[in-house]
């Protein structure tokens, strides 16, 4: 199986990682995996940092950093750590362990707060980095389905707190009626009373 990975940051020249050529483009990694009977193309949201690590940022809650020289995967919370952060990190490494990509004995907390990391296996017969990228992309796309309603709720909240001019009025633009609702002004109805038994409020 041959793997062609495209990730680019101009004007950087191509990087050769043991037969895997990386061409960095802003925000997108293009991966081509092919052998005789099977071909597959993927687009992954990713960046490369100055150390040469690849950062997948397509997941709503975490970023996933892959360090090829260290054969290490780190799952990093985004802007803030929520109650779900550890569960998501645990889910990532359980998925990679089940698929034979990560050594479960290496899963540990990083020296930096809130980051979980592990070593992935290296196999001379296949391109390990290519497989890691493909599996992580599959995990991200599947797990994003659990967050589809978050966008709906965020949109509803924004419409309530910051309504458009069409869906809002200025204070006093619509005058109040003298009587509103079901309670008549001036009357109090204690519990268990009705009609003539009501108390008149002066």
Can you offer a commentary on this structure?
- The chain is an alpha+beta fold and 202 residues long.
- It has a domain at 46-152: Gyrase A, domain 2.
- Helices cover 22% and strands 27% of the residues.
- The protein contains three helices and twelve strands.
- It has helices at 85-98, 128-143, 148-161, and strands at 2-7, 15-17, 20-22, 28-34, 39-48, 54-56, 62-67, 72-77, 108-109, 116-119, 187-188, 199-200.
- Strands 1-4-5-6-7-8-10-9 form an eight-stranded antiparallel sheet, with helices on one face. Strands 2-3 form a two-stranded antiparallel ribbon. It has a two-stranded antiparallel ribbon with strand order 11-12.
- Strand 2 and strand 3 form a beta hairpin.
- The longest helix has 16 residues, at 128-143.
- The radius of gyration is 28 Å and the shape is elongated.
- 17% of the residues are buried.
What key phrases describe this protein's structure?
12 strands, 27% strand, 8-stranded antiparallel β-sheet, Gyrase A, domain 2, alpha+beta, 22% helix, single chain, two-stranded antiparallel ribbon, 202 residues
- One letter per element, helices H and strands E, the order comes to EEEEEEEEHEEHHEE
Strand content: 25-35%
Q: Determine the structural class based on helices, strands and strand pairing.
A: alpha+beta
Query: How many β strands by DSSP?
Result: 12
Give Rg in angstroms.
Answer: 28 Å
Give helix % range: 10-25%
Based on the coordinates given, report the CATH architecture of the domain at 46-152. 2-Layer Sandwich
Shape descriptor reads: elongated
The major beta sheet can be summarized as: 8 strands, antiparallel
The separation of the N and C termini measures 89 Å
* Spatial strand arrangement across the major sheet: 1-4-5-6-7-8-10-9
Main CATH class of the domain at 46-152 = Alpha Beta
**Low-pLDDT windows of residues:** 7-12
Total DSSP helices: 3
Instruction: Give the averaged pLDDT, no decimals.
Output: 76
CATH fold description of the domain at 46-152 = Gyrase A, domain 2
């Amino acid at each position: 199986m041959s793997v062609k990975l495209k990730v680019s940051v101009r004007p950087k020249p191509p990087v050769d990682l043991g037969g895997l050529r990386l061409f960095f483009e802003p925000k997108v990694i293009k991966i081509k995996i092919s052998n005789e009977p099977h071909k597959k193309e993927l687009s992954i949201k990713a960046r490369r940092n100055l150390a040469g690590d690849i950062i997948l940022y397509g997941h709503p809650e975490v970023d996933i950093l892959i360090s090829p020289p260290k054969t290490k995967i780190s799952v990093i919370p985004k802007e803030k750590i929520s109650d779900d952060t550890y569960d998501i990190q645990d889910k990532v490494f359980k998925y990679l362990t089940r698929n034979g990509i990560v050594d479960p004995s290496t899963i540990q907390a990083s020296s930096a707060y809130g980051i979980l990391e592990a070593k992935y296996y290296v196999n001379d017969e296949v391109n390990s980095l290519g497989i890691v990228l493909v599996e992580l992309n599959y995990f991200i796309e599947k797990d994003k389905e659990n967050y589809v309603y978050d966008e709906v709720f965020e949109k509803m909240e924004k419409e309530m707190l910051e309504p458009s001019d069409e869906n809002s009025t200025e204070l006093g633009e619509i005058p109040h009626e003298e009587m509103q609702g079901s309670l008549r002004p001036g009357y109090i109805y204690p519990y268990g009373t009705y009609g003539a038994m009501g108390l008149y409020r002066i």
